[in-house]
Batch of 3 targets.
Target 1
Amino acid sequence: MNRLLSAVFAAASLLFASPGYAQTPSNILIVGQIAEPKSLDPAADTAVNDFRILVNMYDGLVRYKDGTLEVEPSLATSWTISDDGLSYSFKLREGVKFHDGTAFDAEAVKFNFDRMLKDDHPYHDTGPFPLAFFFSSVKDVTVVDPLTVTFELNAPYAPFLSNLAYPTGLLISPAAVKQYGKEVGRHPAGTGAYKFAEWESNAKVVLEKNADYWDGAPALEAVIYRPITDANTRVAEMLAGGLDVMVEVPPDNLAQFRDNAAFAVHEQAGPHLWFLILNAKEGPFAKKEIRQAANYAINKTALVDNILQGTAEVAAGPTPPAFAWAYDETLQPYPYDPEKAKAMLKEAGYDGKEVTFYVTEGGSGMLDPTAMGTAIQADLEAVGMKVKIETYEWNTFLGKVNPGLEGKADMAEMAWMTNDPDTLPFLALRTEAWPDKGGFNSGYYSNSKVDELLESARTSTSQDERAKLYKEMQQIVYDDAPWVFVANWKQNAVTSAAVENFKLQPSFFLMLQKVAKP
């Protein structure tokens, strides 16, 4: 690390000790993260918190186009897909080096994927690799020449490119893996806009500028990520000038920052859906009309405005609008119409039977689940549906919901964050995804046409064709109402007014390659 950066980091250390009397250094961006990273090895990570660091140190073969979840070239300049969808051949960018000075080439690509997917690979023991299933369709990776690599799949898999753009597809230096083994997560080397400089546990991760970055050197000299687990402490640090960027601002504090000219508030709807699973196999919700009535009975706008304080948008169906190319914009959220709900319940012969509602105390993407559960209970009871809430901590909750609701409950809260429009419906709406078959369709929804559409969409290599199939699926699922479609969360961040070119991405990642702070 050069002397200038060493001096800046020393000054920053003093700032961290007393944030109230100093401003952050110029040309150095200090980010308040929600937690300490688990690792800086992309193959080993699962948390968005860690991904926000990784995407600035590493590149993949492809990446998400700015502001979208559409795939564009990155370390691969182009690719071809065989007519049968079983072979993907990538042409690689020439002259790229990892931060440790070793060459990026087809052998490096093969090393990364073989390491994750092959039990007998000499560096497979540097895992575990919890998201390796993203690439379970890969049968083999072949080096054609130094700048050409081919992936052979065991079956057509349309989300393959999208999964390559996800952080699990980011590429690490094979030399670093060989040198550090299981400790490579503390000694990372990628090809990205920023190079790893320092990791002081529970204090900071420091990245420095990669002046030789193939996509243009970043404006910032360095980025410092500070883990601050308590949200109130993050807010206090931001207000005191100790941070330039704060992620995941509590709804109660957003107005405080909006009203202060020293800060800018950023919001972005991402691929998130908060919904209620309805037990379509038994009990009242076995009838479609009663499931539809529940969608009319719940005041989703009040949930979003009052409990979530505008940090989400009302959901219109099973696919988040962040998947713009696959989202059916003609769908409108079920309107709040308690009188219609009452009439539908009466017509459907609802006998007043009490329904059991599983609620969680918290969990990944669950927003404010206890308060939301209570409000939903009140809305349903207002139209004559008796609701008994059972509340559980997150892991216990999953242990009850994921095996299926049969014999236990009539409805349950749930939230998913995904990177492709295939993931959630394929894992949670197909007949073959019932829990006893290994899926997450805990409400036992079954529609043969939906099954057919999802299978076809997964195997089609035409995005236009996939979009048509997904939109048809959304129309059917909207009408069948196996879920109550509640909210799509809007991620948020606050930056100091000095920060330029900052924007949130629908992927929930924190892309800092173009950010400046004069």
Note: Residues 274 and 415 are 4 Å apart (CA to CA).
Target 2
Amino acid sequence: MKFHIKWDISRRSISAECSNVSSESLRLIIAKRSGGIKLKLQYKVIVAFCLFIIGPFLIVGWISFSRTSATIKDEVGKTMLQLVKQNHATVENSLSSVRDKTVTFLDNHFFSNPKQFAFWTHIETINALSEADTILDRWSSDGTEYAIYMANRGNQPFPINALYKKQGLIYLDSSSTYPEWALQTQEEKGAGSLRLAKSSSGQPTVTFTRSILNPEKYDELIGFLAVSKVEVLLTKNLVSVQLPDQAGVFLFDNRDELLLKSGSADMELSELPEALHNKSNGYYYSESNNHKYLYAVSYEFNFNTRLIYKIPLESIMGKQTSFQQLIMVMLAIYLVLVLLFVLYLLRNIIKPLARLVTFTRVYELGRPFDFGDPSSRSRSDEFGVLYTAFIRMTGRLNESIEENYGMKIKQKEQELNTLHSQITPHLLYNTLDSIYWYALESGNHDVGGMVKDLSKLLRIGLSKGKSMIPISEELEHVRAYIRLQMKRYPGNFEVFWDIDEDLEVFKMPKVIIQPLVENAIFHGIQSMDGEGHLWVRLKRVDDEIHILVEDNGFIPVNLEKLIMIVSGEIDDKGYGIRNVHQRIQLHYGDSYGLGYRLRDGGGLIATITIPIHPSE
């Protein structure tokens, strides 16, 4: 009756609370809550849109932009490298023609004919000097200037000094008056070399020089052959390549001297990376004077020259970069439009959805309030259908409350009947207690002890309907059973206990050890006249509890048949141990259960394996 009163009071309190809330108040609550829900969900959708649409879109666009720019720069660099190599090959061909022409000149006028050699080495008249200048002028018809520097022998009939020069023949008074390039040219033993030297007017010019040796004594130096203004030929090669504004072409020799340049840009070799200083070809991008440039470098070993293109990156990538930026701006505008469209959808979806969610939060079973007529405000789309269906569903739920209320009353009455049914074992316990005390008062302590153990067996076995009990209670149940059996078979067997007391606080299924002890007594040691031994062990192995019931019975055991009984393959006997095995597996799974093995020296060992189950 007490339970009925509490339940009814609770229901009346709910009804009273519902009655205090008007329909208008509920609508205000719904309006306030739906606004908050709409904002929260709207922000979540916007954040998700930014993270999963805009973010990846921008990242992919940026990666594509970077990869495309890098690919274009790499392809442009390779193309410019091929162009500079081809241009350098043209320059080398022009230099080779100059070198070959000097070889022909020396062969024709110094080495092939003794008279010619004598002519150049013994010019003693003005006519001979004029003839020599005429020959040199004829060889200079391609725009270059040929000049021969001869040592002054002091036998010329005309005035001469270190600065005297009529056309292309120059006499030097002594080695101290040699040009600055003469000593290095002398060390090259007749091989030609390219360098930057001063012309007769004092202006720097690209000059190809050779030593003139005595054909009869190659260790004797006669003079020098110098072909100046070679840049006249080379400039034609460099100008043939059309370069953009602020670009430049630069030709350096092996002494890192700038021989020639074309274009408006300036350059120092220090702008090149270390890898391109060591006679190697390549290209790279670098920044100079707040501008990015492409450097394409070609090195040729014939004359040890280095040709370099320096091109502004803007002139190469300007249009492509502008085009990519235009695409990114257009994509950004597109994303903004998509975001506005998403917000428009949110306004038409989140608002009705938030209202519906608020209804679900406010609504409680059995709480009557007026939602209004759903058909008057419902929309024709999916949300309108959902909203109308929800209102009708709540109405049907409210109608079913009374029926549910009646069913709960019947359920409580059934629980009360169950409580009444528990009075019968309680009466049995009280009766056994009365017998126990009567036996003690009569002086029959053995009977009293057996009655007490029987009462304990019943109490623990029933355990108020619980299936899991502490291990300490299960052991107490086994001890009570063993005491009863020792009274029945006095002196036939002894019992030994090996219990890990730390495990007694954990839980286990009830009455699973007693059937094993019963089998060990009745089938193993009950008739051994004091020689029977029974062991009950409880120990922990990792995260498992192992319970062992061991006896030294002498009767042979068919272990294979026993295992088949436990597994259920033989079901006409062994109900107790099969029940123990099945209950353990129902609680813990197939990895746990009951197992048997033979004991060394005779007898049988039954092992129960269960996981550690903490007590509540």
Note: The first strand starts at residue 145 and ends at 151.
Target 3
Amino acid sequence: MVRNGERRDRRVRGFAARAGGWSVRHRWAAVGIWVLFVVLAMGLGSAAGRVDVEDSDQLSGETSQASRIVEDAHIDEPAGETVLVQAKDGRLRATAPEFKAAVADVVRAVEGTGAVTNVRSPYAARTQTVSKDGRTALVQFDMRGDPDTAADRVEPVLDAVKGVAGDHDALRIEEIGGASMNKTFDDAFGDDFQRAEFSAVPVALGILLIAFGALVAALLPVALAITAIMATMGLMGVVSHLQPMSETANSVMLLVGLAVGVDYCLFYLRREREERMKGHDPRTALRVAAATSGRAIIVSGVTVCVAMAGMMFTGLAEFQAMGLASLMVVAVAMVGSVTVLPALLSLLGERVEKGRIPFLHRSKRRNNGSGAQGESGSRFWQRVLAVVLARPAVSVVVAVGALLAVAAPALGMKTQNLTLDQEFGNSLPIVATYDRVNAAFPGGSDPAEVVVKADDIEAPAVRAAIADFRAQAVSSGASRGPVEVTVHAKENVALIDVPLVGGSDQDKAEKSLALLRDQVRPGTLGKVDGVEAPVTGQVAGSKDFNDQIVGSVVPVFVFVVVFAFLLMLLSFRSLTVAVTSIALNLLSVGAAYGILVAVFQNGWGASLVGAEGVGAIISWLPLFLFVILFGLSMDYHVFVVSRIKEARLQGRSNLDAIRHGVVTTAGVVTSAAVIMVAVFAIFGTLSMQSFKQMGVGLAAAVLIDATVIRGVLLPAVMALLGERNWYLPKWLRRMPDLSHDEAALPGPRPASDERPVRVLP
């Protein structure tokens, strides 16, 4: 047996082991380099500034083409606002004196703010903003200044409209528009979302305090995660000049960075503590942790990075930004875990136990030096494994059957961009205003916009085609009008607003959009040479986004699965482990999909999470969840399988190695999973259904993965396969060897003539 501090005669290989050894020997240099890296990254990011995704970069196809034409022409479309004036009892008509007086008061009030321009009364000539039943009218105007910052200036206008509404009790007077909606949503949910982000850190710290029972040990993972996030935020600024970033990418990066940063540090720190509890000296404990947990972190981190890189294949700028930001934070956290963390642990020594929480982990401390805790691990999982390993075939059938049953609802998944009432329900009055405008003027709240670009927009042929398009848009049934045209003669661009039949009903509105794109446009504007006429707008953007998401599913799926398979094959030198890794992760993702559909689409238990009446899954979520979950699931899988293989290298039998690997990792996997579930569950409490769906989906998947998959299905499958777990065809044995470094493992090495070594590559 190798004694404490004894050197092996074989040279330790592997980046993680060598990096950990160097960091322990050069502790202050490793810490200084990390601090310098974080400071430099933040400084460079601040100096470079961040470039955000432009509208023209968001999508490919017609939506992007339309945005590019408008941007190239330097046309700043003003932020339009609308005031709905409507009789509360439905009896008062727009022709009534009281109704006209209210409209006049609205016009005077908004003009009096000085913040608006181009105010249009429903009674003005050529204005068609009185509903067909004569009971609703719209006062329309534009916000002055930059449309991107209109939400910051709209509050005085909203206050003026509220003042008029208070003077006319018989009428419903409400404002809606891009600026007012953004202002309302920012006020209602901006602080809510920020609180969720900031509360994730104390939640993670609280769970780590319970897991480690010591303040210093609990602070280390949080500190590593936070510094990795800070460095990545700086790097995002630099990289954004090549790949534009976004606020959404920043939020996803924070989530992923906190999750993997804490996990990686947790894996490393728990292994180092375990080795010290076995009686190893600090240097040996760190060497073992570097060669085992450090290597698992590298394999897991590279796999997660590959999964995140899958987002780059969507062609969607927002997804590409999220993927690149997530990839960077995982890479930074991974490098920090195998470099600065061992240096800090070496510097702290026994002081890592400072700030002990009374009454926690007394048994572990009493066993310090005996090795009992390291071998016994979790009693709960010991009892579970006793059943699983006694009847592995039954366990596989029950676990797979349960997961398939949970995943079954996913077969009927319906994805779409959620409408306002689906996204926010009745929580905001402005959502009801949106519905009232759409009911009185179908499609008027979000009309389709045809961006016409010609060599000469005033040419007779072009003007005739535009007039013909306006007429056929109504006669075809795609719109009930009014179809309004705004000509920018100097830029040779015309903007045609077409309210779509169907309004806020996405399915019906998409049929109207198809009529415009496939029939009306080719027969009118499409006949004029040199004319571009892409159709954009909210409905068109949603349709194009869904089409692009659907089209990117196969390449993203293939890329992530194939590269994850290759990484598992290289890391464990086992075809069986690579195949089962992919299969188990797909089961986990499928179960998460099933839960999402059951709750948010079918409404099973929807009241428990505040998701009544949603009826659909937001279109971007399935692909996003697949990439994120496939990457994060590898954390636990690599960690557990690495420990099982380590036990086999030490000469344990197959069943004993499985038992040892699962039980000794159960504590750290449980702690990591609880942190992830808690952090993701915070986002499941937000009012916006898109974030609620994301939080519930991620939390459910991680919970399933850490319990059913790693605690039941994985050991049962490996028990059934026996020595076939480590099968590697002869023609693959020449591939690079990225497997465990047996020289760095504690305990005796099996003799060369023992059967376990013959089956291990």
Note: Strands lie at 80-87, 116-120, 136-143, 171-177, 415-416, 448-453, 484-488, 493-498, 535-536, 617-618.
